[in-house]
Design goal:
The protein is mainly α and 102 residues long. Helix content is 75%, strand content 0%.
């Protein structure tokens, strides 16, 4: 029973950590876009009037931001769990692992 409770607690902790991390990474993506292209951030790369180089640049920046957000959230949640609880965080199967098991 503790195992199920600890998994739920860890998921809640991860969500609480993800909120400020997501905001910070979103801001960094906007700043990276403005550094790469001085225009406003490209909000819709699928529009027909968007240049291909802008769409590719935007997708690379957003992809790097998403990977960074996931990595920082995962690592920070695990470190916070260890600091507060004093044990290793419960194992949480990733979506890829669940898909491979089916």
């Amino acid at each position: 029973m503790w195992n199920a409770i600890s998994k739920v607690m860890y998921r809640i902790l991860t969500v609480l950590v993800a909120i400020p991390v997501t905001r910070a990474v979103s801001r960094m993506v906007t700043l990276a876009w403005r550094a790469a292209r001085p225009q406003n951030p490209q909000h819709n790369a699928w529009r027909h009037d968007t240049r291909i180089i802008d769409a590719i640049t935007w997708s690379m920046i957003v992809g790097a931001g998403r990977a960074t957000r996931r990595l920082v959230t995962t690592k920070a949640s695990a470190e916070l769990w260890r600091a507060v609880i004093g044990t290793e965080p419960p194992p949480v199967a990733s979506k890829r692992a669940k898909m491979g098991a089916e």
